[in-house]
Amino acid sequence: MILSTIRFGEIEIDEGRIFDFILPIIGFDNLKKFIIIEPSKDSLFKWLQSVEDTALAFPIISVATLNFDYSIDLPDNVVDTLEISSVENLLVMNITSIPQDDPKGTTINLLAPLIFNVANQKAGQVVLSGSGYDISYPMFKN
Length: 142
What we know:
This protein has one helix at 76-81, and strands at residues 2-5, 9-12, 19-23, 33-37, 45-50, 57-61, 90-97, 107-108, 114-117, 122-125, 137-138. It is globular and about 40 Å long. The protein is mainly beta. The strands form 2 sheets. Strands 3-4-5-6-7-9-10 form a 7-stranded mixed barrel. It has a two-stranded antiparallel sheet with strand order 1-2.
């Protein structure tokens, strides 16, 4: 399938790699279909591209690739809704905010990670209530 995006131009995507956001991204409840785009194998950042709104793409990162003390405990209803049966099928990513004029001001939303079940292509954003995590955690310390 060819997807014509604003950010990446025309890209070929495998429809089998489209995630269905059963638990929608906060503020984007009407958008359900997204794909993860890797600009290069060396990049820390990936992009979560909407298939339905081709102007929308979020920069995302796996906090596991950084030296952050970050662990999550998914509520049972999330595990059930996304049909997560194995940790091996789980991918956790976080939306980042990268200021164009100050990339060192990049922040990571640790409070509401994106949870992907790669076995069945179901996904969702989950708010970790009571976790103490920040919605705008600085990626770089001054």
